[in-house]
Amino acid sequence: MSVTHRIAPSLLSADFARLGEEVRAIQAAGADLIHFDVMDNHFVPNLTVGPLVCEAIRPHATVPIDVHLMVRPVDRLIPDFARAGAGIITFHPEGSDHVDRTLALIRDHGCKAGLVFNPATPLGWLDHVMDKLDIVLLMSVNPGYGGQTFIASTLAKIRAVRERIDAWRAQGGQEIWLEVDGGIKVDNIAQVAAAGADTFVAGSAVFGAPDPGGGYAGVVGRLRGAADAARAA
Q1: Is residue 70 part of a domain?
Q2: Active-site residue, from 32, 40, 134, 181
Q3: Fewer CB atoms inside 10 Å of the end CB: C or N, the chain?
């Protein structure tokens, strides 16, 4: 089976003094999505960016902006990010009082909708909302900071979600992407792809790439190549 692998560099690791330039550079390097981390210093221990920054980078973006909301409560921000240019909005079930309603709200605003699972969050939520999902995002670190180390036990969770998605598709269900975020590097993306992921968030691995190594284009190419080779094996 042919698998499309998507590389989504996370702006959390970009140079915030020149975000527009960074967005253009990672797109030129072959990025498929722009991952946009929103943290509220309440649900997670960090404070990042809001809709105004998303709106500011939108004119520079030619690929979808993948907004990951690490906030609680979540519903109030969804219309704001949709208006600001988000193409995808994902959130954590712990951030919503009514997960089904929040997923519907995202789709009603014209965005792809996704549910995010922290390393210790059980997958049982999926039993009730598969028909409303476009994306499942698995965190392979505890959210809040960039540059963390991949949690190896996430691999089993990726395989479990891949089984659910494949079974859902076999029943005639819609396409659902399986995205993984946290500690993704050139030296471990093959394992993540082999477990069943098709979309990969990489922050420091991309934006920390040294120029002698081919810069952003070099690392994006190596990430995609390793993922493709793993799924082809």
Answers
A1: yes
A2: 181
A3: N
- Please compute, for residue 6, the number of CA atoms within 13 A of its CA located in the half-sphere on the CB side: 21
Residue 36: give the domain boundaries: 6-232
**Euclidean distance between CA atoms 44 and 121, whole angstroms:** 14
Q: How does strand 6-9 pair with strand 88-91?
A: unpaired
Structure-token pair, residue 54: 């998303």
37 is catalytic: yes
Question: How does DSSP assign 79-126, residue by residue?
Answer: HHHHHHT-SEEEE-GGG-S-HHHHHHHHHHTT-EEEEEE-TT--GGGH
| The pLDDT of residue 13 | 93
Which two three-digit tokens encode residue 215?
């810069």
**Within-domain flag for 86:** yes
Count the domains in the chain. 1
**Within a domain: residue 92?**
yes
CATH code of the domain in which 87 resides:
3.20.20.70
Instruction: For residue 227, give both structure tokens.
Output: 């993922």
**pTM of the predicted model as reported, rounded to 2 decimal places:** 0.95
1 occurs within a structural domain: no
Beta strands across the sheet bearing 88-91: 6-9, 199-202, 177-181, 135-139, 112-117, 88-91, 65-70, 34-39
Which one from 37, 40, 66, 134 is the annotated catalytic residue? 37
